[in-house]
Design brief:
Layout lengths: L1 H6 L5 E5 L2 E5 L38 E5 L8 E8 L3 E5 L2 H4 L4 E4 L3 E7 L7 H7 L16 H5 L7 H5 L7 H9 L1 E4 L2 E4 L8 H18 L5 H6 L16
Antiparallel strand pairs: 1-2, 3-4, 3-7, 4-5, 5-6, 8-9
Length: about 240
């Protein structure tokens, strides 16, 4: 009997309130009055499964694309490979229109009917460029230290004042050392050109060399890649044949 009593689950009771009835849960089924003072963080349940991106059939390797966004918008480029999550690996080539090896979102691209033969391109170089860590930027620690921060409010030394030229101040001397020029009461810092690593430059040359030999075989294809795309007044993009 004791085993049967223990196995029985508590059930709710139906009670009459006036003309209607309502189910009253058992006291063991009621919500607890105690709750933690701080909310316990729970991991968010992701119901959507990550599916591999399906490229459009017009985006075949070797096809010429028109970029619609970004720094090189309007440029015509060559598609080299499909990367995961809908990203495309493209190149200008760089010698033709100045577009280097870079990744582009497939949504911001128009595929044309023109195609380039990809024979002669080293597959190992393309696989190397397609890796995840290839386009990551190198972290630089160029922040000024504590000594440089506290020296800003200090008075100039006597030796610095004596060595000044005619019509020169301590402020203008420091600006010259930092590469700052004054023009129309505006300070312009001389920007240094971004140095490209030799490995990336060699990969670009290896891809461009094989591409350009195939492009030059087709008449007017090099000129087509050099020209940029733009829509003018009166043009109807929906009627254009790409």
């Amino acid at each position: 009997m004791s085993a049967q009593k223990g196995s029985e689950k508590p059930t709710s009771q139906t009670k009459k309130f006036g003309k209607g009835e309502r189910e009253v849960p058992h006291h063991s089924q009621k919500a607890k009055k105690f709750y933690p003072a701080e909310d316990e963080s729970k991991p968010k349940k992701v119901r959507k499964s990550i599916k591999p991106a399906r490229p459009r059939p017009s985006l075949a390797p070797g096809s010429v694309l028109i970029l619609l966004a970004g720094r090189f918008r309007g440029k015509r480029v060559v598609l080299l490979k499909h990367l995961p999550q809908g990203v495309l690996l493209i190149t200008g080539p760089y010698k033709a229109n100045g577009v280097p090896l870079r990744r582009v979102n497939a949504r911001y691209v128009i595929a044309t009917s023109a195609k380039v033969d990809l024979k002669g391109i080293d597959d190992q170089v393309v696989e190397k460029v397609a890796e995840e860590g290839y386009f990551t930027r190198e972290k630089k620690n160029d922040k000024a230290g504590e000594e440089a921060f506290f020296k800003q409010g200090e008075k100039p030394e006597v030796s610095d004042i004596i060595s000044l030229e005619k019509g020169e101040t301590v402020k203008t001397r420091k600006e010259k050392e930092l590469g700052v020029t004054r023009k129309r009461k505006l300070t312009r810092i001389s920007l240094q050109k971004k140095k490209i690593s030799s490995a990336r430059a060699s990969d670009q040359k290896a891809v461009d060399k094989a591409l350009l030999t195939n492009i030059k075989k087709e008449p007017m294809l090099l000129e087509y890649l050099r020209s940029s795309f733009s829509v003018r007044a009166g043009d109807r993009p929906h009627l254009m044949k790409w």
